[in-house]
Each structure stands twice: as structure tokens, then as C-alpha cells.
Amino acid sequence: MQSVFMTRRRVLFGAILVVALIAAFVIRLVDIQVVRAGEINKQADGRRVVTSPIYGERGTIYDANGQVLGETVIKYNITAAPNNVMPFSSRRLPDGTVEKIPLEQVVNELSEIVQVPADQIMSAITTDPEANFAYIAKRVDFDTYQRVKELGISWLYSEQVPTRIYPKGAVAGNIVGFLNEVGGTGVENFANQCLQAVDGSETYERSADGVRIPGSDIVVEQAQDGGDVTLTIDADLQWFVQQALQETTKELGAKWSMAIVMEVETGKLRAVAEYPVADPNYPGATEAETWTSRSFTYLFEPGSTFKSLTTAMMLDAGVLTPTTKFSVPGKWQPRTGVNVTDSWNHGTLQLTTAGILIKSSNIGTSQMADLMSKEDRYNYFKKFGIGTKTDSGFLGETHGSLAKAANWDNQSNYTIMFGQGVSVTAVQLASAYQAIGNEGLRLPVQLVENCTLPSGEVIEPEQEEPVQVVSPGAANTTINILENLVNNSWLTSRLQIDGYRVAVKTGTAEVAKGGKYVKGLYVTSNAGLFPAEDPKYVVIAVMGEPTKDKTSGAVSPLWKQIATHVIKHYKIAPSTTKSPTIAQEW
Amino acid sequence: MSNALRISRPAGFTDNAVAQRPIREIPGQISEPKKGRLRAVTNTQTSARTKSRPKIQFAVVSVLGLALIMGAQLIMSLVLSDGAYQLSRLKTETVQLQRTTADLSQKIEVLASPQNLAVSAEKLGMVSATRPAFLNLNTGVVTAGVKNIGRGTSLLGKTSVSNIALEKLGYLTVLAPETSETEIFSTTTTTTTTNTSANDPNSTGIIAGPKTN
């Protein structure tokens, strides 16, 4: 019986011991895993856990044909750990042997590769020998990075820097824009919501020799790539227009210039060229005023190109026909405070509506204005899109100025009809001509085709409804009159395109600075459509402050050069019908 | 009987279990079970002796098994860590190749720029099509399209649209026609030299200047 008792005690003792041990372990476990978990994890993580950013890639900007206008590439910052720099560095040669090279040699070789002066590198690594970080060169390209890596120097490191590059340089540089600390310009800025990526970060454990410990990957936050923006711009056409524009601007000694090609049937901008223009790869090379698109932001008085709009609205309202007879005096002062003159001296001319538009008579246009109330005329201009921002969405676009009809004084009641006392952007003017070319239906101006998200979802830009500005008849008659301008005026040789019916109106306006017209400073322009029987494209060419030839006719060869190229580029077949002839005089 | 049974019963056995467990489980050790007398002490001694043989076998098997498991674990761990190194190496290689691909495709995009194509085409002696013709399929009539104007058949003008990305690749200079077009490149070279100035919004601090030949 005693042995039984002893056995029981032993068992009991053993059990208590086991329980006590387990309890001790549990307490320790809870202590480590719960009570001091944070502290211990921190200690451990500090030793081997690495957090590295996962870069989401900013979207690409494409032209209408899928050519890349702006994309993100990885560039490299070359860095050094000065505290590891030795007088001699070991370099492992391809055959496996290790050679010792003096610091000076390393620095010289590095200097040659990264194109940074040797003394600058030397000072970067010797100024603070205790530092464990110093920049050697920033944003070097992949080739340079590879060559630095091939040096095999242990104290050299690199950082990845996502960088925007614009492979087509200044082609559409005014539209694409660039990124900077304050959000950038152009498409880069206003389409940022589509383009921008969200960076993530990744935490993983790393062994002493820098290798990831298997299975330790913990993605903290997934990166999200940005969407791609496709523009309506055709880069090849844009290049040609920019090239032609640049040449003419220099020939005419103009300060700046712009040219627009817009598709009549869609309202899509195919080329928005300007000079001078920034190369987004290095905008610092050009003046700050080139860091945007002048075609959307610069306001100018259109001058006589506006007369096409006036004529179209009169025809639409039925207050006149192309052959309505006007007696146009050499000077016109219908009431006090009104003084309208023409750009050339003449006696009384017996002109038709067509004659007034073709000869570009301010007086004749003013006489036409009296046929309609100013409220009606104002409403027509509004429907043409004057004084309202277009649907392009372009950053910093201006709406232009068109005073309310009630605020038109006796003089501006007439001058606005021939494009003075009213200001537009080149894109607005193109849009108004698009309406005339599209049987009176003005379509929203489109610069961004769409945004394609990484998921594949395609987002089309929101647009206003098309506006029927004038009737198809009024629009087509206006075009026929402008064809007569091309065929039967002093500009015929400069504008006529063999085999094609084209319709063009020229315009000249003085430049106002600080609220006053500056004598001798002009903005000259040509606005036209082709082929006239079924217009496909609007071409606008504008010269700012030319010094050599200040007439609007000087812009005509450029207009023709662009139109000719558009015809070839888009393979527009020659016209099969003849332009109708409309009497200019009676 | 019940008393004796209790003594040899291991803790936790139920009565039922004992009842079901035949005593002859250890054969020949309980000589006369029917007599109701149990000799527990001698029995346990005997059973300890007889049990010792299988115990050694078990120990050997267990130790061997354990060694095998540990060995396998070691090998697995070796393979796994070797795999980690291989994975790390391949990942580095993948990244390297991805970067090379990205770099090359970006260069292609730059080389596909109209500025470069125009110069290259001109260099090859290519000219702009002089006068395209249109064939009307309904009438069978061929009509001539528009004639070249301005620069005629030349693709290039007297000036060129800047492309610093292209200059950085050193291509524009390489492909420049030696004669007449010198003006184009003098303009672009000027831009290049000013390129290292500090107000480049795309860069800060010391930056490598473009490679110019």
C-alpha cells in the first residue's frame, strides 16, 4: 500500500512539474508575443526588415496614332558611402582576379562616365568621411548607370528615380507640357487625374548578405499605375506644321505664331502648333511664356476673319442674300460717335454681300450689321462659341471677351462685326470656322481622345452638346463666298490649290497692350476650310507682331503650305465640282 | 481480483477498458488466472524484462527516424536557401532585363520622332512624294492630287523642331547631312550647351550633361 501511495505522489509531483513548466512557458510566450511584442519586433525589424517603395508608373501620353509623346522611364542617382571609401578600391575583373586601384583613378574614371568634374566627386566623398551617404550624380540614364556598375566599386550605390521623358521633343511640347514641383503644365497637369500613379511600399526581411529571406515578403501597400492619355493630336502632322510655322515666323520677323488644324466632322484638333515652343525635355531652354499653349491661352482681336461669322449669321437670319446690293461709301459716320473706315481708300463702291466679304470692307460689314438687332448678333456670336471656353479642357484656357450686347457702345456695335473690340483664342476661331464647315453645326472642341485606365476601362472626356449655329444653307453659302475670295482676289496666286476648292478669309488686327492699340503691332491671320464642297479640315494660321511683312496676305503662303500638306497627309481626293461664281459688284 | 487489477492498472484506464483488455495479453505470465490470485510484483518484473527488447528497437527506429527527419529538414532548408539565392539572382536578372527593355523601347520611341525620321530619310536620299494620284473606282478616272509646295520634295526646312531627347542619344549629329543643313544643327547645339544650367525643372543639383559628340 505504501508503494502505491509513493507512486501516486510521484505522479502528482511529475504532473505539477509539467504544469508549472507549461505555465512558465505560457507566461514567457505571452510576455514575448503580446506584452513586449512591439518592442521586440522593432528590434528584430531594425536588423533585417527592409521597406522599399514600389513605384506606380505614371501613365503615358499618346498621340492619335499611338506614338508616345510623354512617358516615364527610370533614371538613376549615383550615390556613395564616404565612410567606406578606402585609399585603394578592390575591383573584381572578369577573369575573377581582384585588382587594387587608387582612389584618384576611381574618381577619374567615374567622372568621365557620369560627366561630373572629378574634383566635385572627390569633394562629395571626402567632405564628410564619416557620412554613409553622398550624391555623386543625379538622374543619369541607363547606359551611364550600367557603366558605373561595371566599375565594380563597392562603395558606389544607386537610387532609382522615375523620370518623365518626351521622345518627340518639342513636337506638341506646348500641348503635352511637363511636370514640375507645382503640378506642371499642359496635359501633364490637366490630365493628371488620369495619368497619376499611386506609389506603394513593400516590406520584406533580408539576410545579412542582402538576400531576401524566402517567404518573408509582406506587401504593405500595392502601387497603382496611372492611366494612359490619348490625344487627338497627330504628331507627324504637328511636326510638319511646327516646322513650316517656324520657317515663316522667321521669314516674316514675327515675334510668335500659331497654326491649328481641326477636323471639321469631329471637332478634333489634329495639330496645335506654336512658335516659339518649349521642348518639355528641357523647358528651361525657352522663355516661360512657351510653357503653355498660346492657342488656348492667348487672346487676340481676330479682325476680318470675324466677317465670315457676321455674314453667316445674316444669311441665316435671311436678312440678306449673297448678292444683296450695298452702296459702300469711302467713309461712314452714320451717327455721332461712330466712325468706320476701310483699310484702303475708295469712293462709293457698289458691292454685293459677297463683294463686302471678299474685299473685306469694314464699312460694308457695318452696314450689314444694321440689318439685325445687336442682341440677335450677340446671341449668334455666343452660339459660335465666342467668349466661352471650349470643351478641350486645356489648362489655363481663356474664354475670351465678348461684351454683352447691352454694353456695346455705338462704335463697338459695328467694330465687333469685323473683329475689333472682341477677343478670341486661336482655338475658338478654329471652332467657329468648324461650325461653318460642318453645315452650321458646331461640335465640342476635342483635344483629349480618352483616358485608358490600367484596368482597361476607357474614359471619354465629358462634352457639351453640339450647337446648330446657322442653317446648312447659310453655312455653305458663306463657304462659297470665301471660295470666290480665293479664286477672284489679289490673294488667288497665294491661296489657290490646284485641283481643290478651298475657302479662306484673311484678317489683320492691331495689338492692344495695356488697353491701347500699339501702332505698327499687328496680329495677321488666315482662316479657311477645304475641300469647300465638303469641308474636312479647318486650318488657322496666325502671325504675332510680324516686322517684315505686316499684311495678312503674307500669312497666306503658310496657310497654303499647311493645307497642301494636310491634303496629302490625310489623302483627300481632288474636288470634282467647280466653285460657283458669285457677283461681287452690281 | 479487482483489488489486484487496480494496482497494475495504468492511470486513466476505465473499468470497462480493463474488463475488455484480456489479461492473457501477456501470455504465460499469469499462470492461473482462474484461481483469482495475482502476483503483481513478479509479473511486473517479468514484463519489464520481456518488454526491454522491443523498446530498444523502438528507440533505434525513433532515433533513426528523427535523424532522417532532421536530415531531410536540413536538406530542405539547404535547397530552400539555395533556391532563395537563385530566386534573388533571377529576380535581379529579370529586373535588369526589364530595365534594358524599357531603355531600348524608350530609345526606339525617341528614334521614331519625326525630327529623326526626316533627317534619316533625307540622308537615305528619300524625297517627299511629288504628286499622288487618285483612282476613282466608280468611273476609272485617275486624277492627280496636290503638288508639293514650299520646300518641294525636301522633308527638311531651314530650321528644325528641337528634340533634346534625341540629342542626348547623339543621333541628330550623327545623321546630320554634312552640307546645306548645318544651320539646323547649329541651333540645336546651342540649346544643348545651355542644358546643364541649374534651372532645369526636371533636375536638381549636379546632373550629368547630355552626351554630345
Characteristics of this structure?
A: alpha+beta, Penicillin-binding protein 2a (Domain 2), Beta-lactamase, seven-stranded mixed sheet, 23 strands, elongated, B: mainly alpha, 3 domains, two-stranded antiparallel ribbon, 55% helix, rod-shaped, disordered N terminus
Task: Give a verbal description of the structure.
The complex is a heterodimer of chains A (586) and B (213). Chain A has 19 helices and 23 strands. With 586 residues, chain A is an alpha+beta fold. In chain A, strands 2, 3, 6, 7, 10, 18 and 19 form a seven-stranded mixed β-sheet that branches. A five-stranded antiparallel β-sheet of chain A has the order 12-11-23-22-21, with helices on both faces. A three-stranded antiparallel β-sheet of chain A has the order 1-8-9. In chain A, strand 18 and strand 19 form a beta hairpin. The longest helix of chain A is centred in the first third of the chain and has 34 residues. Chain A is elongated. Helices cover 55% and strands 3% of the residues of chain B. Chain B contains seven helices and two strands. A two-stranded antiparallel ribbon of chain B has the order 1-2. The chains are: A alpha+beta (586), B mainly alpha (213). At the A-B interface, strand 3, strand 6, helix 5, strand 7 and helix 9 of A face helix 3, helix 4 and helix 5 of B.
Describe the secondary-structure layout.
The complex is a heterodimer of chains A (586) and B (213).
Chain A: H1 2-35, H2 37-48, E1 49-54, E2 61-62, E3 68-80, E4 88-92, E5 98-102, H3 103-114, H4 118-126, E6 134-140, H5 142-150, E7 156-165, H6 173-176, H7 186-190, H8 192-195, E8 200-205, E9 218-221, E10 228-231, H9 235-252, E11 256-263, E12 269-275, H10 294-297, H11 307-317, E13 325-328, E14 331-332, E15 340-341, E16 349-352, H12 353-359, H13 362-369, H14 374-383, H15 412-415, H16 426-437, E17 441-442, E18 448-452, E19 458-459, E20 467-468, H17 472-487, H18 492-495, E21 503-513, E22 516-530, E23 537-544, H19 556-569
Parallel strand pairs in A: 2-10
Antiparallel strand pairs in A: 1-8, 2-3, 3-6, 3-7, 4-5, 8-9, 10-18, 11-12, 11-23, 13-16, 14-15, 17-20, 18-19, 21-22, 22-23
Chain B: H1 2-8, H2 15-20, H3 40-111, H4 114-123, E1 133-135, E2 142-144, H5 164-168, H6 171-175, H7 182-193
Antiparallel strand pairs in B: 1-2
